[in-house]
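Deliverable D4.2, example record:
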Amino acid sequence: MNYSSARQYFYQEIQQPDEHIDLAKAALYIAQEEYPNLDPEEYINALDRMAIELQERLPTSRYPLRIIQSINQYLYNELGFAGNEKYYSDPRNSFFNDVIDRRVGIPITLALVYMEVARRVNFSMVGVGMPGHFLIRPNIPDIEIFVDAFNGGEIMFAQDCQEKLSQIYQQPMTLQPGFLAVVSHRHFLARMLTNLKYIYLRQQELEKTLAAVERILLLFPGVSLEIRDRGLLCYQLGHYSQAVDDLQSYLVKIPDAEDASVIRQLLSKLGKDG
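Output generated by the structure prediction step:
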């Protein structure tokens, strides 16, 4: 497995209609760029085995709360999955294979483990992209139950989510309806990649930052800020032709952007008009 074939597998997976994208496979293709010898089937099989073990522990009654409690008991108490609070910014928390191997992760990757195991026992769950955090909930109409996969599968209701928001932002927050909206599969993957993007940016690993941005743009080709960021990264890495194309494209899309003057100065340095 080389870099380009990992990218190609990812690209092929996301060409499907959103609901048909296999999140586990797509997440493993993201990880393959970091781990070229990674075998996605090994981890798909691991999820299958977890689901078989979980199935034996499920209650006979299919009440959502009872099922959630059984999943929590299995994943957190028996297998020992946990949120990595101490080393939250460790990039391994964002790679699905590492999360399955090490049994620690961040909210979105632990949510993915939870969703994939639950799906295999016919208990569909969906991602909820709350600002500053990530939750999941049963894919059942009119049931306002949320699960915090980062905190041991804590069961939450809307009021709990508002308190969590206020805690995260350290000020009183009003819960807007959109804060608890279900995220699409493409947005789920983009959020995983955005986490990696900023982790690598803080570490000044620009090639890896660029790789994250490129895959976000495979998911959402027209996002202006990602086009700008690709241009800026290409400039720093000496890929000047791509930098010019992206920065000019950004100014065409948002000519009155707050940073337009800075981008024009950069283009002037490169001998191009903005």
